[in-house]
Each structure stands twice: as C-alpha cells, then as structure tokens.
Design goal:
By secondary structure, the protein is an alpha+beta fold. Helices cover 39% and strands 15% of the residues. The two termini are 23 Å apart. The chain binds zinc ion.
Amino acid sequence: MNEDETRHRLVELGASLFARGFSVGSAGNISVRLADGYLITPTNSSLGWLDAARLSRLDGEFRHIGGDQPSKEVFMHRAFYRARADAGAVVHLHSTMATAVACLADVDAANPIPPLTPYFVMRVGRSMPVVTYYRPGDPAMEPAIHDAARGARAVLLANHGPVVSGKTLTDAVYAAEELEEAAKLYLLLRGTTARKLTPGQVDDLLTTFG
Ligand SMILES: [Zn+2]
C-alpha cells in the first residue's frame, strides 16, 4: 500500500471500530509505520470521523511534519515501534472489556487473560503484561511500555486500556478486536472452571501460526 492508500485504510478501520463501539468520543488512537516515518490520528480526533488528509504525519524520529497535531498519546506508539521491529501499526483503545480487565486487582500482571481460545493466542501471542498505572501523559509511562512491549505484541495499561501492535494496520486492528473478545470471554467465565488451553496447545498454535 502506498501512503495515500494507507491513509484511507486507517480512516476506514477507525470508522469501523467506532461504529461497533470499540471507541467512544475522542478515545483511542491508531498509528502506522511508513517507509520514512509514521501516520497517527490527531489529538482530540474521533476514530469515527477521521479525515485522511489531516492525519498527523511524523518523520522517522516522531517529529510532527504535517497534518493536524498528533495524539497526546503518541509516546505509547513510539514505545512500541522502538521496542518491536515487527510492529507495523499500533492501536490504543479504551474498549470496555479489555479496560475492565485492566482494572482487576487480582489478576496475574504478567498475563491477565488466560489462553481460552486459539484466536487470542494467534493474534495477541503468549503474553500480554499489565503496565502499572500512570497518569495520562506522564512521560514515565513510555519506558514502562517499552520494556513490556519487548516481550509482548500487546500490553494492558492498568485502569486505562490496551495498546496492541500488529505487522500491518489490519493485523493490529484485528488483534485489538480479538483482545476485546477474549477479555469479554474471560469476564464471563471468571469464577467458573473454564477449560484453558494447555501450554502444549499454546506452543502448537504459536509454532503453526506465530
Ligand atoms: Zn488512552
């Protein structure tokens, strides 16, 4: 995809996430890596009504070089791109179910959602750590996300929401959707004796599809 096609794809995916309630108001932001920089949704924009021509254009060092001012949460995206060479796009949402899990005090912070379905494992991977709470905009959040992202394609920001990477824009959005569904299943099944995938089944999935 060239930059123009990428811009339109980002707008399309944002509208789709918004229409289905994965983001409300101006919550959430999406970025994508280009050959010579990045595109990210502008500050205070709604994923439902993005304008392809006004997306924030950043250079390879994340400096703003075109379009509207970038999201204030740009540093979360930067943390992922710098931690993961395989990250071609990053999606941050305040989606309800994943954020609910991010508010639970009694989960395993290294892996708050157990492997319940193969699709979650295939899209998100073996682990999705919880990054401890930081006030929105706190610069200390960036190194914490960077450290967590080195070992995981997605993280949950405590009491805030998920940040999910993917090889492509579509992959990252699909992974964020799969994460939301996995969080919903986990919340539905909490307190029951749900059958989890075994470590061997998880290994098999990651070997086959990882
Ligand atoms: Zn946020």
